[in-house]
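Subject: Sanity check before I submit

Could someone independently write out the structure tokens for this chain? I want to compare against mine line by line before I put it in a report. The sequence has 101 residues.
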Amino acid sequence: MEVYYSTSGERCAVVCEGAGLRDAFVGARMSETVAQMTKDELQELIESSLETKLRELLGDPDEGLELKKVVRDRLLRQKKAVAAGERGEPLSDVVRRLGLA
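---
Independent answer below. Compare away.
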């Protein structure tokens, strides 16, 4: 792990390499190591690293695919309806209808 600091002494990035993962974690204080990170900071670092690696490996599964005409038309209708001020069903109504309350 490499830690980089700004001229004011704040940690500006922690770069971790391991299991093929490399990611930058921004924030926190000057002399922090992984052992000194909070649970939330470590979790954010791991999640960010995994997300970066998964995007790298998997990419966008829909990239290069063509949107079907029926889907495109429905999305355009929804966009126009929202622009005209129309809204969908209120969340409270959906919660009641589905018995989630």
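---
OP: Matches mine. For the report I'm noting this point. The beta strands are 2-5, 11-18, 21-25.
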